[in-house]
Design a protein that fits this description.
The chain is built from eleven helices and twelve strands. By secondary structure, the protein is of the alpha+beta class.
Length: about 325
């Protein structure tokens, strides 16, 4: 369950983490932190709160604590993401009510919420650079200042809701049920798995549970199981010389034909073609793969370089737009 309930680490500043990750996918997961993502490069599909979002370079995403979300890159190009994860405890002394805040927007776009988001994005990048560079002994104070400004702007411009104690309990119960479901799949995906067993353990009818799954993870139970099996097969294909028949059964596919069908649907390639294409990738260029995610985290030095390049390209875009405005 640790992979679906993400335990957020805070390596530098208490209750705060900022990093850059390059991602192919991250299966449905939950954590207790607010999460703010800036898409630095690429296109991605997001599933959250029974909705699907398509995002691209420059878009911002905002997730509340205990809000399930799932991320997939679109196409063969992986997506670079600047990610801020922050616990509501960070605001405990300045704004205790943050523990009850629920932002009502996921995708933040310029044309939907106003031009303030442009400077907001730049401030987010400045915050990240300060966090990554640690430019002076008191950089923590500067980070705290910029975080407070960022969340002040979010509270000013994004609709929020303050759930009642009863609503909060309902949200927690839903998150706990989702985690139990994901844990059930994680423990049984390699076998013949039956949703009826989980429905019985939860004391729910099969119809009610099927609706709950479709509403909250944006796919059917069988689709989710197949995705977990496929992701696990990807890892096995690239981590050794196991025979395809062994990978098939270790991943829970009852027949090699189903394994091949899953790969053709996901990648357009057969499993052996997938292995041949990606197994030769240098170790330093490989993604950290498991059945939950395929992603690569960048060092502080590389993250600084990526953010600097992003700022340069953003400045070019702004200058180009200004020239167009003058011409017009």
């Amino acid at each position: 369950m640790a992979n679906e309930f993400e335990i957020v680490r805070y390596p530098k500043i208490k209750n705060l983490n900022i990093f850059i990750v390059e991602m192919e996918y991250r299966t449905l997961h939950i954590h207790r932190d607010f999460e703010l993502n800036l898409i630095l490069d690429g296109h991605m599909t997001i599933f959250s709160n029974s909705k699907r979002y398509s995002v691209s370079t420059g878009d911002l995403l905002l997730f509340n604590p205990n809000q399930p979300h799932e991320l997939f890159a679109q196409g063969e190009i992986c997506v670079k993401i600047l990610c801020l994860q922050i616990s509501p405890r960070f605001f405990r002394d300045t704004l205790p009510a943050m523990q009850d805040v629920s932002f009502q927007m996921v995708k933040l776009r310029n044309n939907e919420i106003g031009n303030w988001i442009k400077s907001f994005s730049r401030n987010f990048v400045k915050l990240a650079l300060t966090y990554i560079e640690e430019p002076h002994p008191y950089y923590q104070l500067l980070c705290a200042s910029r975080i407070n400004e960022i969340f002040y702007l979010l509270l000013e411009h994004i609709p929020v809701r303050f759930p009642s104690p009863m609503d909060r309990k309902a949200i927690e119960r839903k998150a706990e049920r989702i985690l139990r479901l994901l844990d059930f799949v994680d423990s049984n995906f390699m076998y013949k798995i039956n949703l009826g067993d989980f429905a019985q353990a939860e004391g729910l009818s099969l119809n009610h549970l099927s609706y709950f799954i479709k509403e909250n993870i944006n796919q059917t139970f069988q689709e989710y199981v197949t995705n977990i099996r496929y992701n696990h097969a990807c890892k096995l294909l690239l981590s050794g010389d196991k025979r395809l028949i062994d990978i098939c059964f270790e991943s829970g596919f009852s027949d090699p034909r189903y394994l091949t069908k899953a790969f053709l649907k996901k990648t357009g390639m057969r499993p052996d073609e997938y292995r041949h294409k990606f197994a030769a990738v240098k170790p330093e260029e490989q993604y950290q793969r498991n059945r939950y995610s395929s992603q690569k985290f960048y060092s502080d030095a590389k993250a600084k370089q990526i953010l600097s390049n992003y700022c340069i390209e953003e400045a070019k875009t702004i200058n180009f737009r200004k020239k167009l405005e003058i011409v017009n």
